[in-house]
Fold each of these.
Amino acid sequence: MLDRDGNLYTGNLRGASQTDRYTPSGGGEEAYEPHFTFHGFRYVGVAGLAEPPDTATITGIAVSSDLAQTGQLVTSDSMLNRLQQNIVWGQRSNFLDVPTDCPQRDERLGWTGDAQVFARTAAFNMDVAGFFAKWLADVAADQDPSGSVPWVIPNPMGGDSVHFAGTAGWADAAVIIPWTMYLTYGDRRVLERQYASMRAWVEYARRRAGSDLIWRPGWQFGDWLALHTDDPSYPGATTGTDLIATAFLAHSADLLARTATALGRNTDAQAYGALFLAVRGAFDREFVSSTGRVGENTQTAYALALAFDLLPDSLVPIAAERLAQDVRARGRHLTTGFLGTPYLLHVLSGNGHSALAFDLLTQRTYPSWLYPLTRGATTMWERWDGIRPDSSFQDPGMNSFNHYAFGAVGDWMYRNIGGIDVDPGGGGGAPGYRRSRIAPRPGAGLTSASASLETLYGLLTSAWRLERERFVLDVTVPANTSAEVTLWDTQVDRVQESGLPLKAVAGLRDEHQRGKDVVVDVGSGHYEFTVTLGQQPRP
């Protein structure tokens, strides 16, 4: 980076010299390119040239695993488009054989927590099926016989199941990523290959939790890099590690039960479904009050409890409102770290607070996703305040400016702004986009957005625009697939397809009112839905 005076800043590289020294022979034009290292950088300092350099002196070569780009998202907001570009560049420059945390300082390790929070976003942007299949095999290979999973894969740290391993939210990559790959690519083989590893991790976590199923002992990263302040009235958004660890035990047990069902292992499905319910009950007794307060009343506590279905139905709207109140109290800012951030917008929009989710996404002041863009960021930062509002740098001991974890917000953007989501099952659905969900939400002043995804069946697209008193949605559904299209806040008689009332359109599988919304079931083909607006669709 450059410091506030425009000088090259390398303090945050720690022990990585990031320096190439080349002595020319003097025999004419020469070219040098390193073959046994790579550099993550934004600026290059050059010294020792006989003549001033120009734009042809150095050529930057982007090095990464050869992953085809599959997903696209473009909106009417240039800042959101820049955010998406930063997410993609962060992924491209860190997916180099393993999903590294950063490509520049003396680390460049396959941190499991970073990979699991970003996996769903990664699978939209690029074809990562083979990439993660290979890395998950490494996870199983480095897994301790106890079932504990190291912090980083491959693991150069050594240690046993207690040291540098077995941490909630990080080791859960052994369960979350295989399930995510199955959802997005529909290939049960990854579940079959990883099942023993998935099961071993859940059993290890169950033992760590003990008889009361509350996971208390041992080192935890917790909600890594959540907001901390110097304000004594609000020292920071610290969520108890016992709450986080217990929540992830429940979540991985739930996903393992679903995996067992997908593989026809019915006995295991019942056993791990029962474990999930038991941990959920323990979570409620330990961390949830009768008035809907969860744990330390942090955004992450509510995000995990709501996202992992850990609350009684009667408390869900109350907890969601408590979360919304905290966001508003922070001036529509987030306080979440690595583990809470991926779920924050999902639980807000899924529980009646979509407008607030859009406010968070488009917030430009610190802390927010767009604040780094106001400081010129071209990739995702490790910290919300890598460069502080006063232009000073965070602690150089840990301050990466290319760290994709907070880019997990891309998943919410693709599903909600772009409107493309997978239907994991039910109602004739199937993973791998054999059946998809199309449900874009206008919000935050956006006037248009288009998203596309190259699925295994072909190109799936969703493009919408606001035209005066109309909302227009163009959808393309690939051959041999189907989709459920949701049009928010309208009635069937106000919706047309290709200029015809829905009831008059041949080929639609079904159309009906679902509460305040219209749902249309369609097969493969191209559709243009037009909604006559009495008011703009709810954000």
Note: The longest strand covers residues 470-487.
Amino acid sequence: MPVGVQSETKPGILLSGLLSGLLMGFSGVIFTLSLGSLVFSGDLTAFLPYGIGMALASTAIMMVAVALLSSVPGVIGATQDSSSVILAVIAAGLAANLSTVHVEERLATVLVAIATTTLLTGIFLLALGLFKLGGLVRYIPYPVVGGFLAGTGWLLAKGSFGVMSNVSLKLANLPELFSPEQLITWVPGVIFALVLFFGLRRFRHFLVMPGILVGGAMLFYLSLLVTGTTFHRATELGLLLGVVSGDAIWRPPIMENLLAVNWSAILGQSGNIAITIILSMVGLLLNVSALELVIRKDVNLNRELQSAGIANILSGFGGGMVGYHVLSFSALSYRMGARGRLPGLISGAICAAMLFNGSALLTYFPKPVLGGLLLFLGLDFLSDWVIAGWKKLSRIDYAVVLLILVVIGTTDFLIGVGVGLVVMIILFVLNYSRINVIYHAVSGKEMSSNVKRCTYHRRVLTEELGLHIYILELQGFIFFGTANAILEQIYARLADKQQPQARYILLDFRRVTGLDSSAGLSFSKCQQLAEAQNIILVLTHLSDNIQRQLSQSHLSEKHKNVRIFVDLDHGLEWCEEQLLEIEQITTYHTPITLSAQLADSGFEKARIVRLKEFLEQVKFKEGDYLLHQGDDADMLYFIEMGTVSVYLEMGGNARVRLQTYGLGTAVGEMDLYQRVKCPASIVADSPVTAYRLTRTALSEMKTKEPELAATFHEFFAQLLSERLATTIRTLTAVAR
């Protein structure tokens, strides 16, 4: 007994499984007959027995295979309406192109084309599942899917008239359709479709659809009885399927003479075959996603792709049609309490029994019921996307749905989908180009590096020199629609006479996901503009791919005015150092001693002398640790010469630089005051001369020199307030 079925033999579970299987089986037969009639309608009506056999065989295979292979017990698979519409287009196209060839060649070509499409669909779905690509459905624009399904609804509705009356729904055929002998063939089907459509919207019980189907068939035969119409006469009028030969009902491709197949004609339908494959993927994943909401549990999309892929491969080898998980059947099975694999096996067995032993019964199926069922499916699709779509879609998306529907209705599926995709791509480009590719545009006055400098240097950079640095933090994917905005922003900054001339233009790529060749050209123009105005172009946070693309556009450090740094912090630090070095030569004087630094911060000379009594001068070589991460934070350092950096130790030899402190700065004061462990390490970047203040010395200062300690605390309060002001200034600038 198959895995998972043995546990369903308990009386209560078995009963619900049997009832669900019987209901799904007979409902599946009716749906399958309607789809087979759809594919083999019009010029192919003479081959309808083969279409019915093909549809029943594929549904039987789908139901059994999906029941056994799905990750969710209780899921029902069957031949699908949307894919059957395109199979009907393929079959009609082949029939029209091969109208002059021998009947056997025409039939063999149609059967093999459908089986080949099913086989390729199975291989594609299986490959997606094996390579775990179930998320691909997220990349298909929703309006394109909606337009495609609306077009499917139109073709289902249109095809239903061909099933009911053997006259296609065309403007030129309207006089014939409204003739008395044709009205009797399709009017009952239209009435049945409308009853089914509005009945299912009014009543949600799971027995409504089966009840209407059975009631429709009974009402049909009651009308024959009342009017005195015999079965023979009903068949002549086109109200019944007619005689179906049991010997010819199912012919797998392996039984066909493949040499009789016109492969060039099949190749001519490759576009529609590709659409069938893609639509099947989308339909399956959408059905499975919706099923998750019904059963309220996650479903393994990739496992379902594999199960549907195997089912379609088996169906293809058996000469069947495309199919996969049926949302309505699966949801109905769950509502009936049948949540095992037994319903799928039973329903598949019913379809197989009908295929091999039910030819006589098929003769008496009312065509108005089959055609009405197709018309109902078409109306359902059109209602969801044309009527309800007005409320659930934006006006642009809704217009795309209507456009695809009109194009499909007037041309074919391939052109409709192509037009829809082109329109969505254009809309995407237009919408994406409106997104500001510049995340922040600030100056070096408003944003500084993580290098903590003395009060004097901070004042120089924030009040004057920082304005010579222009920072652009970029974001998103930069392409032809957005790249020019960067160049225009730089032009605007350079043309602004109210600001000092920019000496450094810093472009940060941390938030950039990628760029195309046109963007590379725009950055190359930036370099040429900067070079013409004696400006240094600084590029930071370049990924390997972006740096390679820029190099291909001849933008690299080979140009004397281009510099590249690992991140924004290091790039900004370099710009600041360059400005300080240039200006120190001509204008500014940098204080060096600690006494000068403290005096510049407001310390009186006498208090500086007394403060030094509590400090210890220490020296470190490059690479020495002033404090280790995790040590007791019981000291701070005044940096008199050299620089130190604060690193977050990541384990092993990995570490991340948090900040750098230069001469005239203090480091470790926060940890000293908070009495915590050192959250990071402090390392000398170069030979360092510093003054150390321990917690013990600070306590001694408060005891012996309370006024000096108060002045010292005031000094640090001022220092911290300046740092806070710098942070607020940066946040204000980037929040604009």
Note: The chain has 29 helices and 16 strands.
